[in-house]
Amino acid sequence: MRPVDIIYKKRNGEINTKEEIEFMINGYVNGQVPDYQISAWLMAIFFNGMTKEERYHLTMVMRDSGDTIDLSGIKGIKIDKHSTGGVGDKTTLAVGPLVASAGLKVSKLSGRGLGHTGGTIDKLESIPGFKTAISKDEFFKIANEVGMVVAGQTGNIAPADKKIYALRDVTATVDEISLISASIMSKKLAVQSDGIVLDVKTGSGAFMKNIPDAVELAKSMVEIAELNNRKIIALVTNMDQPLGDNIGNSLEVLEAIETLKGKGPKDFTDLCVELGANMLDLSGLYTYEEAKEILNKNIENGKALDIMKMWIKAQGGDERVVDNPEEILPISEKIVEFKAEKDGFVSHIDTEKVGIASMVLGAGRKRKEDEIDFSVGIKVLKKLGAKISKGDTIAKLYISEKSNVEEAIELLKEAYEISKNPPKEEKMKLIYEKIVGGK
């Protein structure tokens, strides 16, 4: 078997066999296939795509390049949740305790962020004392006793994906459905959960900018899970504006806590309940309708908040943060306001630019080695459809001495469009489509 023949087949739009895909991926990982040949093959895939079966084989060989995580040591049903990422997306922080309060076990391996804001791990580490580097025994113990645990990813989950993604990043082959699907699902299938709920974002702040592409990606990942006999639900959700109001690590933890107190922004609360209801439905513990009712009740009666407090304490964090978040979390007291320059309606938000604005304040990383400032970020006061007058505050910027405030303000000016008419209702819809598979 020669790499050039496999590249030739894919270049001509033919189907690569399971053995050919294994030969290319394993050969690249062990150094027998050079990066220029893998790059050529990736470019051929970029232009010609892959079949459902090819995507599955690619996913599985990348999954099997490293460790798989056996969750059988955790009693009960385990449903994983994954978001393709966006601005203000802190759903794990609220959804985890919420579904754990209804009897589901949530055991997540999460990563750090590179871009707008920190990842889930960074956000959790803004809580004083919170440990994300925990042993396997601790991981299982906390999951069994509390029902909720989040730890940093091990370095050996789907290493082939890590190596190939780095190559895709420098060869302009990142945004192809098959390659994205295999990248995400190789890591999700490495964790032996009973099912997966995917939150596939679409819009100006998402990787997939339009709804048809996001739906295609969601369906592709659902097909891969089905071929692996894994139960799955994918929701295609709106990222044409930040999710919730707060962007930035401590600010997002604060919002997650407020949400479980019943005081969170409506869009964020609604999405958390929706994701949680689908996780519980997939588990078989409750129907979707029963789950929604229970989750809303557990916000009202404080049961979800109690789980959050237990979880934070179990992982070494200061549980007082749940009762007094603004006193315990590092949140900057220095605030700059971004104001409207004319009257009208907020008709468009370039959400990605809002996210980048938070990054230049210090809430995210441009490079892996950059340090995050937990105390900075943005609180969005005016979202799509809001009627505003000249001089109204659109957003508050929480800044530090190292924040590039001028650049952040300029980015927000570019991000917000103020028009005479409000946007169409479709643009403000929270959930566009639901795809159910393997159930």
Percent of residues in beta strands? 15-25%
Number of helices: 17
What's the CATH class label of the largest domain? Alpha Beta
CATH superfamily of the largest domain: Nucleoside phosphorylase/phosphoribosyltransferase catalytic domain
The figure for the number of domains is 3
Give the overall average pLDDT. 93
CATH architecture of the largest domain: 3-Layer(aba) Sandwich
Query: How can the largest sheet be summarized?
Result: 4 strands, mixed
Number of strands: 13
Q: Helicity level, as a percent range?
A: 40-55%
> Cα-atom Rg, whole angstroms?
22 Å
What general outline do the C-alpha atoms trace? globular
Structure description:
- It comes from Marinitoga hydrogenitolerans (strain DSM 16785 / JCM 12826 / AT1271).
- This is Thymidine phosphorylase.
- Residues 345-419 form the Pyrimidine nucleoside phosphorylase C-terminal domain.
- Homodimer.
- One of its GO terms (biological process) is pyrimidine nucleoside metabolic process.
- The protein is α/β, with parallel strands linked by helices and 439 residues long.
- The protein has 3 domains: 3-49, Transferase, Pyrimidine Nucleoside Phosphorylase, Chain C (Transferase, Pyrimidine Nucleoside Phosphorylase, Chain A, domain 3, Up-down Bundle), CATH 1.20.970; 79-156 and 163-325 and 431-437, Nucleoside phosphorylase/phosphoribosyltransferase catalytic domain (Pyrimidine Nucleoside Phosphorylase, Chain A, domain 2), CATH 3.40.1030; 331-425, Alpha-Beta Complex (Aldehyde Oxidoreductase, domain 3), CATH 3.90.1170.
- The chain contains 17 helices and 13 strands.
- The chain has a 4-stranded mixed beta sheet with strand order 1-4-5-13, sandwiched between helices.
- The chain starts with a helix and ends with a strand.
- The model has no long low-confidence stretch (mean pLDDT 93).
